[in-house]
Amino acid sequence: MIKCSFCEQPLYCKACGKPFRPRRGATHVGIYQPDMAISCPECQATLICQACGYDYGQGEGEDQAQ
After folding, report:
1. Neighbour-count burial of 14, counting CB atoms closer than 10 A to its CB (0-12 exposed, 13-18 middle, 19+ buried)
2. Which candidate, 11, 2, 8, places its Cα nearest to that of 50?
3. Residue 23 — left, alpha, or beta (φ > 0 → left; ψ -120 to 50 → alpha)?
4. pTM for this structure?
5. What is the pLDDT of residues 2-19, one digit of tens each?
6. What SS3 string covers 2-28?
7. Phi/psi of residue 17, each to 5°?
8. In terms of C-beta density within 10 A (0-12 exposed, 13-18 middle, 19 or more buried), how is residue 54 classed?
9. Alpha carbon separation from 41 to 20, 58, 66 (Å, rounded)
10. Among candidates 18, 14, 19, 21, which has minimal Cα distance to 56?
11. DSSP state of 1
12. Which end of the chain has the least Cβ crowding within 10 Å, N or C?
């Protein structure tokens, strides 16, 4: 199970509720790089952690809306 890079809880997509299971290695690495936008491989929505609300679609200089 992949964990959220912010809260370290199991990473589930807030939009569809499915666990984050990247299909490519680059996507897996991307969750640890704040300047890379990530989409859920299941529903294609911007990946947002279901547990803490961390938005993996925002760039480094953008505010987190929580």
Report:
1. middle
2. 11
3. alpha
4. 0.79
5. 999 999 999 999 999 999
6. CECCCCCCECEECCCCCECCCCCHHHH
7. 80, 5
8. buried
9. 7, 17, 23
10. 14
11. -
12. C
